[in-house]
Amino acid sequence: MVRKVSFLCIVALWAGGSVSAGTAQPLRNVILIGWDGAQREHVEQCLARKELPSLQRLIDQGRYVKIDVEGTTDTKAGWTQILTGYYPEVTGVYSNSRFQPVPAGLSIFERLESNFGKDQFVTVAVIGKKQHCGEINPPRKIRLDEEQKDATATKAKKKNKAPADATATAKQGPKKQAKQATTAQPGAGATPQGTIVEENGVKYRVIPGSPYYGMHNALEIWEFGLMADAKVGARSLELLEQYQDKPFFFFVHFAEVDHAGHQHGENSKEYNDALISNDLWTGKIMAKLQELGLADKTHIYVTADHGFNEDGKNHSFAPYVFLATNNRAVSRDGRRQDVAPTIYEAFGVTAASFQPPLDGLSLTRPDHRPAPKLGPAKKAGQAARTAEATRRPDVVFVPTPQAVVDKMLELAKVTKDDVVYDLGCGDGRIVVTAAKKYGCRAYGFDIDPKRVRESLENVETNGVSHLVTIQQQDIFALDLSPASVVTLYLLPSLNVKLIPQLDKLKPGSRIVSHAFDMKGVAPEAVVNVDGDGYGRTVYFWTTPLKKEP
Ligand SMILES: [Zn+2]
Fold it and tell me: Which residues surround ligand 1, an ion (CB under 5 A)?
């Protein structure tokens, strides 16, 4: 019965919505809910296990789309881009360590306040994080010699006194209060940043203001550092009650997923539990809107600033996130900067006149932009290499049937003097078989840490660890010259991409590929094998590769 009623409600709501689709009927309220650090794949796995019923309900009412991140996959870059719709070139916020206050007027909060009028519209931010999202530090210029004195003093003080758990009210006024639930002690534990300048022989450290230093003034409520989802959630429910009579934009930011990821890793139970906690409080917000009679007047957008490195404890290259919403006009996958334009459009705010023009594009509009450049801009050296080593696998892991493995090694005429390289080793079955059957040395490479773990287990179980080495590696960055046999089960395009590396193999080396050929290099043999009831093909080459004219 209950189900029937809610179904009818949804039909009624969206029948109304679809009539005016295209004319962009202005909506009364929007709630943007941040699941900081929620990795797309993990969220999708939770959805599949039915662990996120609230998110599922939202998706059932509307849409789920993939969001790919252009730019640094961290919190400052992320929420700034989401809350403005601009690239860092406009906001000056590139990353957690390279930032400045966002220039006045560019945030969703300021745009909506100025569009609807300060007294007619309510903007609220309730933020879980203490740093990177929420903090509103002014620009600072500290004498280096005094900074050092302070640091010594703080150390001494810390020894004698437990840290205060004071509530600091940073700003007061009839319409405004900015609050940090617990004081983050600047300096203590925080990495010194900024630039050192010298004036008249005195050295100063110049630290830019926080991204939100200016924009937070536009809001009725700006609270941050609440940490726990329960605090963020409960406070949001309170404020919804308080401001239910006026049109509003709420930014509700949950921090527990990101914190759990840093502490316990993306594959941990804690990370998973934190997603469930985000979902629980998202559900309570949805229920509160229902209770206040605002559910059909409010768009909810759930999204993340960045994902998490697969099985990692950081998000150095984590450009895969998502957006779930009850806005059925959302029609495509997009990018972080597309969220703000989508919200403007939902409110009926003409963003076309904004200066500078938004970098994002409403998720309701077709996208003709070139493919996004994912993740942090590649710099020479470390940053690029880290990103490379942790990027997504190019192919989904599909194991090669054992009969095909045997055939591949047989075709390659493997002997105990060979060195076998398996590129994209999956569960390690090729290298394990090569070592067991022929007693040769074998190396398995995979970019996916899960596969590396499985391979290592397989090597261990089969007692061939003295012969087999497994490494987490990007195969396209690999020197293949030590190998005499290379085995592949990738994709046609990837085989072709490997040609320059295969050209460096010693003459007389053998290459076998399961299922895929190598455009431009004719195979010397093509063999059909029955593998798990399906006809499989194995291609065979020797070096030097004979390129087709
Ligand atoms: Zn983080």
Answer: 258
